[in-house]
Amino acid sequence: MAYVVTEACIDVMDRACMEECPVDCIYPGDRMAYIHPDECVDCGKCMPACPSEAIHWEHKMPDDLQPFVSANAEFVSEHGLEGGGEDIDPVGADHPIVAQRKPE
């Protein structure tokens, strides 16, 4: 995995990153988007497109956001997401790290 969506996306999810992604590897959960680690090609186009600066490169992830690396991978795996997220409806669920946070 090269890029990871983190907590700044929770309850924002404006999908600009999804529109910019050339390989369509970003999937909508209920309150946050998730990047599929096996589909991401490390192009970095999603990062500047994100208005909330929620996307980070895995290898420069701030320590306090490190749990989101596994959360992205676990979410797409658990829900069997593959083949493109731009045209699908939100899954209707989130990884527990997101679901446990109170809406703002």
Mean pLDDT across every amino acid position: 94
- Count every beta strand, where a strand is a DSSP E run of 2 or more residues: 4
What is the CATH T-level topology? Alpha-Beta Plaits
Helix content: 10-25%
Give unreliable regions as ranges: none
- What is the 3D shape? globular
Level-1 CATH class name: Alpha Beta
Helix/strand structural class = alpha+beta
Ends apart, CA distance between termini: 29 Å
Q: Spatial order of the strands in the main sheet? A: 1-4
Number of domains: 1
Work out the strand percent: 5-15%
Topology as H/E string?
EHEEHEHH
Biggest sheet statistics: 2 strands, antiparallel
Global Rg = 12 Å
Helical run tally = 4
By CATH, the architecture is named 2-Layer Sandwich
Question: What this model shows, in words?
Answer:
With 104 residues, the protein is of the alpha+beta class. It has one domain: Alpha-Beta Plaits. It has 4 helices and 4 strands; from the N terminus they run βαββαβαα. The chain has helices spanning 16-20, 46-49, 67-78, 96-99; strands at 3-5, 26-28, 33-35, 55-57. The mean pLDDT is 94.
List keywords for this structure.
24% helix; two-stranded antiparallel ribbon; Alpha-Beta Plaits
